[in-house]
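Feature request disguised as a bug report, sorry. It would help if multi-protein outputs had a clear separator. Right now it looks like this:
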Amino acid sequence: MTDYSNNKIRRILVIENEAEISPLISRMLNSETVRVDTIKDGEMAEQMLQERDYALCIIDLGTFMAKDKQLYRYMNEKYPNLLNGAIFTAGGVLDEDAKVFMAQIGRQFLHKPFAPDRLKEMVLNTIKYSNA
């Protein structure tokens, strides 16, 4: 990945329940200026968010919507700026609840499988414009 404007290391939290996808995202994004942490559920996400400062979250929509949107409520209350800059991913067909949610929040979305270059572009633009 490219340096965003200085040598500050940015951390990205990937919340993904599909075990084969997290390592791919990590390999795509890890660099001298980016460190990627990957976890598989909302409970682990809450713990990681408390322990480290993240510039960006990449969130699997299925994981995010699980347990009656518990992670959404937590992030909306404690980390609204991080939630506002999140990149969401999903595979398959979105259920109606997920479609309504995505329309309401108007966030960036990548449908799996996504091109590595598209993910990198979205990450670079998100971090650049959030000044994280």
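(second protein starts here, but nothing in the output says so)
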Amino acid sequence: MVSHDAEHAAVTLRDGGSVTLAPLSAEDAADVARLLDSVADPRAAFFDRVAARRGHEGARGAIVARTAGGELAGYAAWIAEDGEHSGEFAGVVDPRFAELGLGTVLLRRSTRDALDAGLSTLRVELHPGSAALAAMLRDCGLHTHWDLDYPVVHVNLLLGTRRPGWSTPAPTT
């Protein structure tokens, strides 16, 4: 469940706990870097590009999820490719918050924001060991195109679509 004001959204997780979603701020950078290091995320180069584009023109978005105590639970970002209606997405959830629905919330919020910014497609890279992310993308309710080029799989999410027979809750934020 998500409640939304102009900048922040409170999210109730499957275990009854809650986090607050907020736009990435300069103060979040060190916590995000620690989270990426702790999970040895192979998409670190993508997150570096997101950080480098802060303060520059162009469509991009980044959000963090924090507990009531201020602990970073997750991070997601997307950047548009120059001159196109497509972009790239990546996200990471602290393993202590895995399987609670936070990754899905970050994905849905990010795809909705990218669609609002005029993008029609977001590309996601899957690396060996990304089984949980692959399952989430399979079940996200959007039409997807999978490029199974080992070792890195690319998944294109077609924004604004819904797969027939899949129940995708209407956005609440």
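Even a blank line would do. Unrelated, but nice: Confidence is low (pLDDT under 50) at residues 1-6, 168-173.
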